Amino acid sequence: MGSYRVEKSLNNNVLIATYHGDEVILIGKGIGFSKKNGDIIDTDEVEKVYELKTFQDQQRYRTLMDIGDDEVMKVILEVVDKIRDLIDEEVSDTLLLSLTDHILFAIKRYEDNIFISNPFSNETEALYPREYSAAYIAVSMLNKQLNIKLPETEVGFIALHIHSSISKQSIRDMNLMTEVVSKAIQIIEYDLKIQVDKNSIIYTRFVRHISFAVQRVIANDSAPEQRNLENLLKVQYPICYNVAIKIVKMMQSLLNKPVYESELVYLTMHIQQFNTEASDV
């Protein structure tokens, strides 16, 4: 079991402490009440622990604590705690560091009237609906408790941080995923001269397919070849097949990896669904 040594009390319910030489953030009802630096906390008083394992992470969090005042840091901890309750899956402790970093600078941008667009919000929501929902609640909490008005674009950014902490994927890879989806939709809309309904089931299915396709490409994996079906689709839906070819070339360019021709079959079928939906309107 052991015990924790208090380094700093953020408020009555949150402490910065050390445990066997490692810096941790402790959460517990009344745990910080009248505590001073050097005091000892028994583990049975602690409800939740966030562990920053590397020296770099510890130093980064200390730097962030100097940037944000105690009230802001307290609310961010509450937000991270809420996210962990909402996501029914193991969330890495590094979420505390990445979100603290992101939120502090999001608040600074808000105070300085600097607005950053998020062109992939729709794609992020379609790819990670659970994380997007939790991020929406997180932004609402921040705005209410800190009396600020962070823009809705922050929901998409925070959703990516949440998914990264679950999947262990880098933010770069996830941004690449959303960019592939966005460019694929742009190609479809331009070539078919249609407007894709991003609230439709067809769109959601397409986004999921692209997501799996990108993961296969990154992993150097492939879907089973279906030559007969590919030849049939090529003849029956030539426009959609050509659009699929353009999407594959775009994927190869962005991912800097070959995309197997077997993807053309599945892409063509999804693209044809968009075409049919547009014709029925």
Automatic annotation (TrEMBL):
GO terms for biological process: regulation of DNA-templated transcription. InterPro entries: BglG_antiterminators, CAT_RNA-bd_dom, CAT_RNA-bd_dom_sf, PRD, PRD_sf. Keywords: Repeat. NCBIfam families: antiterm_GlcT. One of its GO terms (molecular function) is RNA binding. Residues 67-172, 173-281 form the PRD domain. It comes from Macrococcus carouselicus. It comes from the Bacteria. This is Transcription antiterminator. Pfam families: CAT_RBD, PRD. The keyword Repressor does not apply. SUPFAM superfamilies: PTS-regulatory domain, PRD (SSF63520), SacY-like RNA-binding domain (SSF50151).
